[in-house]
Amino acid sequence: MTSVAQGFTKSLAMTVLSEIGDKTFFAAAILAMRHPRRLVLSGCLAALIVMTILSAIVGWAAPNLISRTWTHHITTILFFGFGFWSLWDGFNDKGEAEELAEVEAKLDADWKANTGTTNGGSKDDDELKKLRRPFLSQFLSPILLKAFSITFFGEWGDKSQIATIGLAADENPFGVVLGGILGQALCTTAAVVGGKSLASQISEKIVALSGGVLFIIFGIQSFLSTVE
């Protein structure tokens, strides 16, 4: 029986190497420079936790829809595919500075659009709205919701999401969820606390190459293991 520790370890390592230097990592770092860190961290973490749990549920359910032998082989192919994909990205990397600038430009455009809309409204109306819902404003802050939506949709269909599904199909899903959440928490906290200065110092090429090697190792291990 697959141990929780094995699923936890694989998920933690995969998540850290997949998320550091990712677009959502840069987005969290930039958002934390412009908005309260507490709200940005809460929104990003909530989105990543939800995404991790949903992915693990899909992976856990897969063997019930398809035979475990097929899910094992598909997972092995995914690991090799993501490994070579990451290596390709590493060798053909356009540069972390360009990636960071691209994310920052997109957030700048969105921020200017929202600022223009807000400035067009009445300050009295804004104050009235705050008085009417002081409780909800603490938990459903526009900043928190923005951080949640940017992170959630940025991760949807991402390599790390599909890899989590594959891991949960082949490993203990509980361990995969724990490892994934811890990895996401570490990366997101580093992005929010370190900000743009930390994000700009990360070598995306090294991260991509390391992640590629890790995925290939997972693929070899999966290929050599037997289906129970």
TrEMBL record:
Which Gene Ontology BP terms does the record give? Golgi calcium ion homeostasis; Golgi calcium ion transport
Query: Primary place of residence?
Result: membrane
For whether the record's keyword set contains Chaperone, the answer is no
Q: Which domain of life is it from?
A: Eukaryota
| Gene Ontology MF: a single term | calcium ion transmembrane transporter activity
- According to its UniProt record, where is this protein located? Membrane
One Gene Ontology cellular component:
membrane
UniProt keyword list: Membrane, Transmembrane, Transmembrane helix
- State the membrane topology: Multi-pass membrane protein
* Any Pfam family hit: GDT1
- Ranges annotated as spanning the membrane: 39-58, 70-88, 135-154, 174-194, 206-224
Which family does the record claim for this protein?
Belongs to the GDT1 family.
Task: Output this protein's name.
Answer: GDT1 family protein
